[in-house]
Design goal:
By secondary structure, the protein is mainly α. It contains 18 helices and 6 strands. The strands form 2 sheets. A 3-stranded antiparallel β-sheet has the order 1-2-3. It has a 3-stranded antiparallel β-sheet with strand order 4-5-6. A hairpin with a 2-residue loop joins β1 and β2. It binds acetyl coenzyme *A. The site of acetyl coenzyme *A (ACO) has 18 residues, from loops.
């Protein structure tokens, strides 16, 4: 691919153009500062590629999402969450024996050390589950000193990955049961990931409805990776300092917590409840979302990269119908959600800004129907996103990337002399 020419201060420099396998193009500015003294500014990183990656491709204009080349629609329809996790982490669909081995590794590493259970026991029952998960994942580092080195062998890396997937699932079930005053149930190695999770959460010994477990599995698949979003970029940033994988994932959890990111699924449900309590007039809230003097935003709408229907939202809507029918739930919030969506999709404000429902718009209704409390919704996102974070961390560490260290343009005071206190 040819270079581009940049003229700065009367000097012309050539910058290479790199092209991805799907035709995406980037100007490589690695040498810009050394050759010109200039840096670039890109608040929110909307134009900045932080890495090359072989994991996930998404085209926000066309509404395309693929993991390792496989369309999300096919994976949601035909695969399962652990197989998708294997695909993301190792780059290929596993053979039957590879998948069985990976499933077993996760199951064998799902129990929490007693010390971690004590940490969870010490949280108040109204603690936000995201704070608990962040503490638990960072806390795991204390119990596995052999996995803290900067250079893990392939088998250590795989063990750490399986462990984080299994133990985070167990921590969710353990904490939830504690908050309900119940005895947490152990993980069952004979159950698939989603059935085991639902069984741990609700103490149903193997009595989890297969269609409901499948719907949850689909939800986890849809959340499994989304290239360089806020939490994944955090994982890469922290991982680039060679911090251990437990600390790195803990940082990803913290970044996901925000309502503009993974926290949106909790915020959507709270918004729907607010509309319901206000009498159910969703059109009034569409008006509030458009009013620039009102800080209200339509949660679950809009996306930094999707300027078309989020392909995941379409699949989730279907899963939502399955779960509500199977569990015989008639949730009035669903009518409010459908009404909001219908209104917004024909309103010029949302049309012009290309604001469509995102992955979180309907997921909360499913979680609610499953009996998961609202403040645990973002924790569900953590379970789904873990394989993506781990795959991106693995790719980063194997690429030998430099430590992430952006520049800035300083706009503060220029040099001035210290003023003694009695002279201020
Ligand atoms: N409701 C009302 N207006 C909105 C919304 C919304 N949900 N989202 C964007 N807009 C408007 C903005 O006010 C802005 O309008 P303007 O051009 O008149 O100033 C325009 O659309 C562009 O919005 P930005 O905030 O610049 O878009 P950005 O890419 O920075 O933000 C984000 C994306 C954070 C997702 C935003 O759309 C939002 O806050 N959505 C609600 C929260 C949400 O659902 N987050 C989950 C995202 S998916 C995920 O992380 C899993």
């Amino acid at each position: 691919m040819s270079n581009v020419k940049l003229e700065l201060d009367g000097k012309t420099i050539e910058l290479p153009v790199i092209e991805g396998s799907e035709g995406e193009k980037a100007i490589d500015i690695t040498k810009l500062r050394a050759e010109t003294g200039y840096v670039t500014i890109d608040s929110g990183y909307g134009n900045t590629g932080s890495c090359t990656s072989e994991i996930t491709f998404l085209d926000g204009e066309k509404g395309i999402l693929r993991y390792r080349g496989y369309p999300i629609e096919q994976l949601a329809d035909k695969s399962n969450f652990v197989e998708v996790a294997y695909l993301l982490v190792f780059g290929k669909l596993p053979s039957a024996s590879e998948l069985a081995e990976f499933n077993k590794l996760i199951a064998d590493n799902s129990e929490l050390p007693e010390g971690v259970k004590k940490i969870i026991d010490s949280f108040p029952s109204d603690a936000h589950p995201m704070g608990v998960l962040s503490s638990v994942t960072a806390g795991l580092s204390a119990f596995y000193p052999e996995l803290l080195g900067a250079e893990l062998s392939a088998s250590e890396q795989t063990k750490a990955i399986a462990q984080l997937m299994g133990q985070t699932k167990t921590a969710m079930g353990y904490f939830f049961n504690k908050t309900q005053g119940k005895t947490p149930k152990s993980t069952d190695a004979n159950l698939d990931y989603s059935t085991d999770f639902l069984s741990m959460m609700f103490n149903k010994d193997g009595e989890v409805d297969a269609d409901v477990a499948k719907a949850l599995d689909v939800l986890l698949i849809l959340h499994a990776d989304h290239e360089q979003n806020c939490s994944t970029s955090t994982v890469r940033n922290v991982g680039s300092s060679h911090a251990n994988v437990f600390a790195t994932i803990s940082a990803g959890i913290d970044a996901l917590w925000g309502p503009l990111h993974g926290g949106a699924n909790q915020a959507v449900l709270e918004m729907l409840e607010e509309i319901q309590n206000d009498g159910g007039d969703y059109k009034k809230f569409i008006g509030k979302a458009k009013d620039k003097n009102d800080s209200f935003r339509l949660m679950g709408f809009g996306h930094r990269v999707y300027k078309n229907f989020d392909p995941r939202a379409k699949i989730i809507k279907k899963a939502c119908d399955v779960v509500l029918e199977k569990l015989d739930v008639k949730d009035p919030l669903l009518n409010i959600a459908k009404g909001l969506e219908e209104e917004a999709l024909k309103d010029p404000y949302f049309v012009e800004r290309k604001l469509y429902p995102n992955v979180d718009f309907y997921s909360g209704i499913i979680y609610k129907a499953l009996g998961i409390p609202t403040n645990m919704f973002t924790g569900m996102f953590v379970l789904g996103r873990l394989p993506g974070w781990l795959a991106q961390w693995k790719e980063l560490r194997e690429s030998g990337a430099r430590i992430a260290r952006p520049r800035q343009i300083y706009t503060g005071a220029t040099e001035r002399n210290y003023v003694d206190q009695n002279e201020r």
